Amino acid sequence: MPEKLHPNVARVEQALRERQVTGEVVVLDDAAPTAATAAAQLGCEIGAIANSLIFDADGAPLLVLTSGAHRVNTDLIARLVGAVKVRRATPEFVREHTGQPIGGVAPVGHPAPVRTLVDTWLGKHEVVWAAAGHPHSVFPTSFDELVRITGGTPAEVE
Fold it and tell me: Domain YbaK/aminoacyl-tRNA synthetase-associated: where (predicted)?
């Protein structure tokens, strides 16, 4: 009998099915809280990891799906979204708005939709990997699919 999935992963799987995503969630042997650890376990380039980073944009959550090869320029994304101040969110803020822990935030499966920017750099990879609600889970997708399933805006974020 298969192990029961973590409730966050089950919610993300449901959200993926509802959005007709064909990629299956993969449960990793070890936690992958960073792009480097995920890439090492998956045997892919670090740039093919879609980091899900939550920012506090004037008090509202902002999800930036960025290539693991990039660092997000908060001044740039503040201008892109018309925010006065964008800063890295606290773990409590992340969990409040996504229901998921830092290191496992998925692009979908949140209690309410979160405004999303999708790093155009991810389009350079045929397959990108995104977290699936828990630091031990990921799923394969693509840049175009991330834009579609999140309703996100393609953007240069570095």
Answer: 31-148
Looking at residue 134, its pLDDT comes to 95
What is the three-class DSSP state of 116? strand
Confidence of residue 5 (pLDDT cuts 50, 70, 90): confident
The two three-digit tokens of residue 8, written as one number: 């966050």
What pLDDT, on the 0 to 100 scale, is given for residue 3? 60
Mean pLDDT of 69-91: 97
φ, ψ of residue 57 to 5 degrees: the values are -105, 95
Buried b (16+ CB within 10 A) or exposed e, 90-114: eeebbeebbbbbbbbbbbbbbeeeb
Mean pLDDT throughout 39-54?
Answer: 97
Classify strands 137-141 and 128-131 as parallel, antiparallel or unpaired.
antiparallel
Give the chain's mean pLDDT: 95
Tell me the two tokens of residue 124: 């350079």
DSSP structure class, residue 152: -
78 and 62 in contact (C-beta within 8 Å)?
no
The CA angle 110-46-11, to the nearest 5 degrees, is 20
Q: Which of 30, 13, 29 is nearest to 132 (CA)?
A: 13
Using the Cα atoms of residue 109, residue 155, residue 68 and residue 49 in order, give the sign of their dihedral.
positive
